[in-house]
Amino acid sequence: MDPVPSPHHVVVVGAGFGGLEATRNLTGVPVRITIIDRRNHHLFQPLLYQVATTSLATSEIAWPIRQLLRNREDVTTLLGTVAGVDKAGKRVLMEDGEAIPYDTLVLATGARHAYFGHDEWEPYAPGLKTLEDATTIRRRILMAFEKAERETDPERRRARLTFVIIGGGPTGVELAGTIAELAHDTLPREFRNIDTREARVVLIEAGERVLSAFVPAQSAYAKSALEKLGVEVELGRAVSECNAQGVVYGGQHLPAKTIIWAAGVAASPAAEWLGASADRAGRVMVEPDLTVAGHPEIFVIGDTAHVTTPEGKPVPGVAPAAKQQGWHVAATIKARLKGDNSARPFRYKNDGNLATIGKRAAVIDFGWIKLNGRIAWWLWGLAHIYFLIGLRNRLSVALSWLWIYTTGQRSARLITQGSAQAPAKPK
């Protein structure tokens, strides 16, 4: 009697937007799926900066992967770190020595911080990609005010109350605007020795404008809106040094104790695992159908992949693009399992660009319509609430935003991490 054939095994590495979308859409065909991630949660990264700036709690933007896939008996979730890929043996190599075989592999491993050859800056200027990053930055921001409250030297106090954000993309703009509001609106009545409204928030961008993905008029609006919030916007001057004393940009030194990196990212080491060609940021140069050259059984998607439009423009590393790629990969696998091996090039649909500036302004570019100001902010909020997972989270985030909008108060201000000094024992 012939043995019953095993279902086609799809291994998905990474439970971000792309990996989760591929997994969710692989239904109706005989497959078993193993999804691997080094963290146990899926993260709604577009709102990560709101955790870093005390607007939202971690549980409002992250969900356990097992919970999200609990009704999918065809899916096995593994917590672990991938160390490489054996293409010849069709195995994913784990850091603990285990090897997981696959028939089809989907790499959706995301991106990490890029310091343009200055990795030594990272301890002084943390980036924002994970929940751990967000809580680290939140702690540094809040501790800056706490230490300034006890500082008696005027110069050291000014350095404590100077916040530098490096990079004028959406993350940098959103961080700068929210930190300014925190200092000017939320905290003034809570401190006695300092006036938190004297805090300096400095946004440094090496390019000629902030939000370079938007049209120049919207970049100008964003700069003006930031300045109205009290943010100092420095354009056209790159940072040349970051250390414990502050930053050097444009040849001048700025004393600052809180520095946040929002200037660049690099792909995960997937290209190294595969021995594949990569662009300058480390993204795998994939085929039009998102597969690796010479290996149609391996797909690379999201921030890990260098994908271009038919016009030759790079597909942006944003959540909607990753989700579209995840859906495309699932559709291609399903077609192949039904005997259709025809070429299926990926086509990106640009759903628009959005960025918020504080709690009352935003810019939106849908191509056919461009909006600035308060209406754009409401649309930005509705769009993000819509894409959150679960009714409870949508209601929770909506109520948090409404409370902040009407009162200026932010409740997620607990300093919960970091080494605490043990109290001295009584003599």
Alpha carbon gap, first and last residue: 82 Å
The value of Rg in angstroms is: 23 Å
Helix-residue proportion:
25-40%
Strand tally: 25
Largest sheet entry? 6 strands, mixed
Helix count, DSSP H or I runs of 4 or more residues: 11
Question: Which strand order spans the largest sheet, edge to edge or round the barrel?
Answer: 5-2-1-9-21-20
Structural class: alpha/beta
Strand content range: 15-25%
Summed over residues and divided by their number, the pLDDT gives a mean of 93
| Apparent shape | elongated
Which runs of at least 5 residues are low in confidence (pLDDT < 50)?
A: 419-427
Question: What secondary-structure arrangement, pairings included, does this model have?
Answer:
Layout: E1 8-13, H1 17-25, E2 31-37, E3 41-43, H2 48-52, E4 62-64, H3 65-68, E5 75-79, E6 82-86, E7 91-94, E8 99-101, E9 104-107, E10 111-113, H4 131-150, H5 154-160, E11 162-166, H6 170-186, E12 200-205, H7 216-228, E13 231-235, E14 239-243, E15 246-249, E16 252-255, E17 258-261, E18 265-267, H8 270-274, E19 284-285, E20 291-292, E21 295-300, E22 305-306, H9 319-337, E23 353-357, E24 361-365, E25 370-373, H10 374-387, H11 391-407
Parallel strand pairs: 1-2, 1-9, 2-5, 9-21, 11-12, 11-17, 12-13, 19-22
Antiparallel strand pairs: 3-4, 6-7, 7-8, 10-18, 14-15, 15-16, 20-21, 23-24, 24-25
